[in-house]
Structures are given as structure tokens and as C-alpha cells.
From TrEMBL:
PANTHER family: HYDROXYMETHYLGLUTARYL-COA LYASE. This is Hydroxymethylglutaryl-CoA lyase. Residues 1-270 form the Pyruvate carboxyltransferase domain. SUPFAM superfamilies: Aldolase. Belongs to the HMG-CoA lyase family. InterPro entries: Aldolase_TIM, HMGL, PYR_CT. One of its GO terms (biological process) is L-leucine catabolic process.
Length: 281
């Protein structure tokens, strides 16, 4: 079981700039918890995401000597991948690939076809620099633009990514429209069919639907889950203040109640949970 904590996703949409030292202090607390991965920053243009324009400075302040947690940074193009690849501390590069043509253009200023070509180049960069590429299939459970979507389309995307040698794919419920049925269908069909790929779940949710989504993904075989403490963040496209990131504390409670050992430092977890309120206030 892998828990990926995503403070980057929680921070990126905020208008008020979180001071660099505040970010460093918070991330260092998260590094003490024992998450598998910390989605900590972004090598996307500062014009697009000004909140994360200090990612390089934040990285320099992280205390990595005594943590087992690996670092993930989001990139949106080859240039960002080249920048991120220069940092040996970063293990994973994350790229958002959308099954919605409209969202791909909005998110990365590229068509899906162009994004797929760029993804192939980014995969080469990762292989040369000993990084692992995590591809997020955004709008993976539907979109608000009336772009065509069905589960078979997602499966076709995975087939293309498999040909590129992508080893980690996270299905992203960008606007909180996933449900038990489509979550179960996708993971039950994808996981057995692509044995060399690790499938993750990046599920945005409302306060009343998180449990059914986590349970559906877990029961369908998913063992990689993204979350953010207190459910902070979420996609601006959702236009619903109740649709945020999956609350990590809810997931942890669910898995521990099921008897699944997560090997998290509970004291450090509670300290991070308390600190998060001040960071995002």
C-alpha cells in the first residue's frame, strides 16, 4: 500500500502566496510521517502556477537525510522535465495527460496528440536521468466540457502509455465525478490486463463521497492512493467548493480500520495535520 501526500496539489490554486519558509517547514514535517511519496512542487511556468515559483528554493530546504519518503514534482513539458531531472533528490516526475481535449489545452496548451508526443520525449529524459515518470490520466472519470468520455477511451490511453514503457499511471478524478461503478470497472479491467503498470488513484471528492470511492478502488485492486491532509486543494474547474482532494486522514483511518499496516509515524502525522491548518489559513 502506497500513500502519496500531495501538498503541491493543495497549494497550487491558492491566490495568496505561502511564504517559502512556511512551505519548507510544512514539507519537512510531512517528510517525518513516512508517506511513500511527497508530491512537493512543480517545474511548470511560474506564470501558470505562481504559488510554486519557489520550488527550487523549497527543495534546497528539505531535510531528506532521515526520511524514506521519495519526492515527486509535476512538469508540463520537456523544458520542465529537463529542469526537474537536474535534481538528484527528485525520484518521480508527474505529467498530466487528459482524455479531455479541452482540458489538455487549458492545462498544458497542447492537444492530446501533441501531449502524447511530448510525453514520449519526457519518458526518454526520465530514463536517461534515472527518474520514474508518473502519468496522470486527468479527467479520467468524465469532464465538464461535454468532450467524449467512456471507460474504453481510458483503456486505449493506457495501451498507448504501455507502449512507451510507462510504469506508473494514476487515474485522476479531476472534478469529483467518479463513482463506485466506474472506479470499480476501470481498475478491475486495467490492473489484470497491464501487469507491468502500477495504477494509482487521484480522486477528488466531496465530504460525503470519499469512503465509497476509496473502498471501490481498493476492492478493485488499487494499492496506490493520492491525498492531501484535510482535503485541501482541488481543481478550479470543479466550480464547487466542496470538491477537494481526497483527505489523507480519512484514507489512513479507512485502511487502518481494515487492518492494513501503513507504517506511518502517528505522532508526526498528527503534528502535520495540526500544522496544515495554519499553512492553508
Amino acid at each position: 500500500m502506497k500513500i502519496i501526500e500531495c501538498p503541491r496539489d493543495a497549494m497550487q490554486g491558492l491566490k495568496d502566496f505561502i511564504p517559502t519558509q512556511t512551505k519548507i517547514n510544512y514539507l519537512n514535517q510531512l517528510l517525518k510521517v513516512g508517506f511513500d511519496t511527497l508530491d512537493f512542487g512543480s517545474f511548470v511556468s511560474p506564470k501558470a502556477i505562481p504559488q510554486l515559483s519557489d520550488t527550487t528554493e523549497v527543495l534546497a530546504g528539505l531535510e531528506l537525510a532521515h526520511t524514506r519518503t521519495k519526492l515527486l514534482a509535476i512538469i508540463a513539458n520537456v523544458r520542465g522535465a529537463e529542469q526537474a531531472a537536474q535534481h538528484p533528490e527528485i525520484a518521480y516526475l508527474g505529467f498530466p495527460l487528459s482524455v479531455s481535449e479541452t482540458f489538455q489545452q487549458r492545462n498544458t496548451n497542447k492537444s492530446i496528440a501533441e501531449a502524447m508526443q511530448e510525453l514520449a520525449q519526457i519518458q526518454e529524459i526520465c530514463q536517461k536521468s534515472n527518474k520514474t515518470l508518473v502519468t496522470y490520466i486527468s479527467m479520467g472519470f468524465g469532464n465538464p466540457y461535454n468532450n467524449p468520455w467512456n471507460a474504453e477511451t481510458v483503456i486505449r490511453f493506457v495501451e498507448q502509455l504501455d507502449k512507451l514503457g510507462i510504469k506508473i499511471i494514476s487515474l485522476s478524478d479531476t472534478i469529483g465525478v467518479s463513482n463506485e461503478e466506474n472506479i470499480s470497472y476501470l481498475y478491475k479491467n486495467l490492473i489484470p490486463a497491464f501487469g507491468s503498470i502500477e495504477f494509482g488513484a487521484h480522486l477528488h471528492t466531496t465530504p460525503t463521497t470519499w469512503l465509497e470511492k476509496v473502498a471501490a478502488a481498493y476492492e478493485a485492486g488499487c494499492r496506490r492512493f493520492d491525498g492531501a491532509l484535510r482535503g485541501f486543494g482541488g481543481c478550479p474547474m470543479a466550480k464547487d467548493e466542496l470538491v477537494g482532494n481526497m483527505p489523507t486522514e480519512n484514507m489512513v483511518g479507512y485502511f487502518e480500520a481494515a487492518g492494513i499496516e501503513l507504517n506511518l509515524d502517528k505522532a508526526a502525522f498528527e503534528a502535520a495535520l495540526a500544522q496544515s491548518g495554519a499553512v492553508f489559513s
